[in-house]
């Protein structure tokens, strides 16, 4: 039996023997102590991070040009066996051709999914930005733990053959790549907002929160700034597995067809399997 479990049993035995009023007072006092301790926990950049999340991206902005450092470009043999690589690259917002909204389902529960965006530049260049839990070595993700300051938040900037192929091919998740309907000026503002978010997290660590600071809510915050329209509370932000419904209602993805047809059209798993993660992966999944 662990120490925490033993302590809970002792506390339960003590409370059981106390009068009801005294037991309630003790329970409230314990909750206050736990809450006070919880608020003292601080996020950190200094931990034994998983190799895939050990490097934080940083960016230098020079007008329309952005030089991004530590772009992840792993090549996988299995989800736990890879060749590690990071690189730097410069992107010009004048060469932006669009952005795709990506939803990857990794749980049997419909509301659970991971969302990302992929920016499309001239000459078939793609950059994925993924806001996610920054896991320590040996750590796994739990939505429940994510409510209690147990994970730091990070932005991963990466190649589609890393971030998309990892989920579609090697983790065998259902992955959807929806083209976003937006003018280039808004896409450029959205891109620069995400770049500023990269730099903010590199400068100052933050905690991930399953409900209030997750993959989708961070994208929505940047989207609200671009659209100048607050989206307010929506359960589909709290539950990213339903986020494509919200994007469909907002007209961000093609709503001239049904959502079911859009999902059939933009599910990329079969095309990803046929390609196998080649140099032309990004083109293959969009055929």
Keywords:
287 residues, alpha+beta, 2 domains, five-stranded antiparallel beta sheet, three-stranded antiparallel beta sheet, 10 helices, 10 strands, 24% strand
Give an overview of the whole structure.
It is a single chain. This protein is of the alpha+beta class. The chain is 38% helix and 24% strand. It has 10 helices and 10 strands. A 5-stranded antiparallel beta sheet has the order 9-8-7-6-10, sandwiched between helices. A 3-stranded antiparallel beta sheet has the order 1-2-5, covered by helices on one side. A two-stranded antiparallel ribbon has the order 3-4. A hairpin with an 8-residue loop joins β6 and β7 (114-121). α1 packs antiparallel against α2 (20-39) and α4 (184-203) packs across α5 (215-227). The longest helix has 20 residues, at 20-39. It is globular, with a radius of gyration of 22 Å.
